[in-house]
Amino acid sequence: MSNQTKVVEKKYLLSFILITSLFALWGFANDITNPMVAAFKTVMELTNTKATLIQFAFYGGYATMAIPAALFAQRYSYKKGVLLGLGLYALGALLFYPAAQFQMFGFFVGSLYVLTFGLAFLETTCNPFILSLGSKETATRRLNLAQSFNPMGSFLGMTVAARFVLANLNADKHLDAVGNKIEFSTLDNATKALDRLHDLAVIRDPYVALGLVVLVMLVIIAAVKMPNTTNKEQMHPLQSMKRLFQNKVYRTGVIAQIAYVAAQIMCWTFIIQYAENLGLTKEAGQYHNMLAMGLFIVSRLASTFILKYVNASQLLMWFAIGGITTTTCAIFIVGLPGLYCLVATSVFMSLMFPTIYGIALGNVGQDTTLGSAGLVMAIVGGAIMPMLQAMIIDLGTVGFLPAVNASFILPLLCFIVIAFYGKYSSKILAKD
C-alpha cells in the first residue's frame, strides 16, 4: 500500500496520536456534564428547564469562541490554537473549586462556559489538523478514526458520573420508615444544607482532577514539534465566509451538524429522565447511557471500516434512517422496550459527526479553517434544543403519552434533516 493511500502516514504518526488523545479529553468533558443536568436539578432544586442552563452554557461556549479560535489558528498555527484551548479548558475545570465553595449555580454555569471556550479551540483546530495530516482521499476515514477515541473518553466520563457522582449524591438517598424515597425538596433546611455541601463537592472533584490532567497534556504537546499544516494563504474572513455560504454542500452541512449535535445531546441527556419515568434510579438511567455509549463506540469503529467501501453520503443517509426508526419507537413504546430503542439510537449516531464534518469540508479548499469554525459553531444546537425538550418534559403528559416520551419528537426531526443531507450531498457531489 502506498503512502498516498495510508490513513495515517508514518511522518505524521506522533502528531496524530497526540492530537487524537485530545478527542478523548473533550469527550470526557461532554459526557460527564450531560448527567449533571439531573444532578443539579435535585441538589439545587431546579426545574428541568432551568437545569438545562448547564447545557446552554456548555454548548453556547462553542458558538461564542469557534470563529475567534479559527482566526487565531489561521493567524498562528493549529498547535498554538490547541495550546490555548488546553489552557482555557484547564481554567474552566479548576473554577469548579470556588464554585462549590460559594454554592452558586450561576458560578458553575460560568465555569462551564469558560471550559467550553477551550473545547471550542480544540475542536476548531484538532478536526482540520487531523484532516490535514495526510492525503485528501483518506481524510474522512482519518477523522472517523480519530473521532473513534472521542466516545472512549465519553464512556469514561459517563462511568465517572455514574459511579463517583450520581451514586454518591446524598440528596437521592433519603428514605422513610418503610423504605420509600423522600424527595429532597421536602427535607428540612438544615438537612438540605448539609446534603448540598456534600453533593456539590462530589460534583466538583472530577472537574478539578480533569483540569490537572489537561495541564499535563498542555505541557507534553508544548514540548513536541508538530508539522505546521495550517493554510496561511487565505487571510480575508469576509471573502472566506462568502465562499463558504455559496458552497451548497458546506452550507447544508452546517445545518445537518446543528441537527446532529442537538439529537446527540438530547438522546444522551434525557435518557436518565426517560428511565426515571419508568421507575428506575438516576444511577440505573446512567448505566443505560453507558450501554448506549458502548454501542456507539463499536459502531463508530465498524462504520470507519465500512466507509472504505461505501459512499460516505449514502451511508450517512441510511444511518439517519436507522435513527428515525429507533426514536419513533422510543416515542410510542412506553416501557423498557422504548428505553432499549432509545439506547439503540446511539448505534446510528456513531457515524454522523465526523462524516458530516468530512463531507462538508471536502471541497472548501483554502477556507478549511474558517469552515471548521462554522461546523464547530453548529454545536450550538446542543445549547438550544435540549432546553426546548426540557420544556416539553416539564409538561408531565402530552396527549396519551408521557411528556418525556413525546419530547423525543425533537431528535426524530433532527434525524430527518440528517437523512436529507446524506441524500442531497450524495446527489450534489455526484455531479462534481
Automatic annotation (TrEMBL):
Topology of the protein relative to the lipid bilayer: Multi-pass membrane protein
Subcellular location: Cell inner membrane
Transmembrane segments: 12-29, 53-74, 81-99, 105-122, 143-166, 207-228, 249-271, 291-310, 315-336, 342-361, 373-393, 399-421
InterPro entries noted in UniProt: Lfuc_symporter_FucP, MFS, MFS_trans_sf, MFS_TsgA-like
Major place of residence: membrane
Keywords assigned: Cell membrane, Membrane, Transmembrane, Transmembrane helix
Designated name of the protein: L-fucose:H+ symporter permease
Organism: Paralabilibaculum antarcticum
Name of encoding gene: fucP
